[in-house]
Each structure stands twice: as structure tokens, then as C-alpha cells.
Amino acid sequence: MRRYETIFVLRPDLGEAPQKETIKRFEGIVAGSGGDLIETDEWGFRELAYRVKGERRGYYVRLDYGGSGATMNEVERNLKLSDSILRYLSVLVDREADPAQVRADIETHKRRAAEARAAAEARAAALAAEQEVRAHPAEPQADDLEAEAEGPESESGEQD
pTM for the full model? Predict the structure, then answer.
């Protein structure tokens, strides 16, 4: 099974519900034409490099799927006919791909990225706490002041 990636740009004035319906429609087209949907990634609103059909912004969506050339052709045919699509681009990612293995690889990558992000946030929080302590040293406590007033003690705690 071949692995394809199709990125399309939706009109920004659609609204949330029609956007979701359009995305679900294209996911259904992949499944209906014998394909296997691997991942749908919504990138959100972005500025376009130039005006496309009078629009300066668009809602980007990426479909990652496995299927035959006919699956990709059907997706592109429907993208071309849809008035809510500003632009689209389909790319052959891999000639021979196992969708289940690709899904597992994507999940592993996402999990590792989340762990790395959490570790980086923990390091940043620890560094911020350390800098806060250095910037505002703790004031001596009353017990510490009394101990200094009594005088030095030997290590055993008794005075000489």
C-alpha cells in the first residue's frame, strides 16, 4: 500500500462546524475509496504568502493516508470540486508502507516529544526557582540568631 500526504487550505470564513464537516468528508472519501487513514493533523489558521481566491488567510489541514493511486485521485478530484478549498497538494510519501506500523511510529514519536517537552519544562522551572533563591536570599531565622548570640559550640554540642 502506498502512503500519501495531502495538505489542503480551507477558506477562513467557513466557521468551525463547516470546517469539521469538510475534514470529516475527506476522511470519509479516503475510507470509502479503499484507503486507510493514518493521521489527520489540523494546523489551524495561517497567513498565505499571497492572495488566493481573494483570501489572505487559510485553515490548513494535513491528511496522512495509505491507499492506491485511485484513492489519491479521488481525494484530489473532490478537493478540486469543493468551493471551500483554496489550494491543495498531494505527495507520495512511501511506495510501500504498512499503515499500522506508520501509526505506531507516529505515536512513539509523539510520546517521546511529549516526554522531552515535559523534561524541558521541569528544567526551566527548576532553573527559575534557583534564580529566585539567588535573587532573594532567605532572611536568617530567629533560632539562627539566638544560636549565634550564645557563642560557638564544639561538634559534640557541649561547650569547653
Answer: 0.66
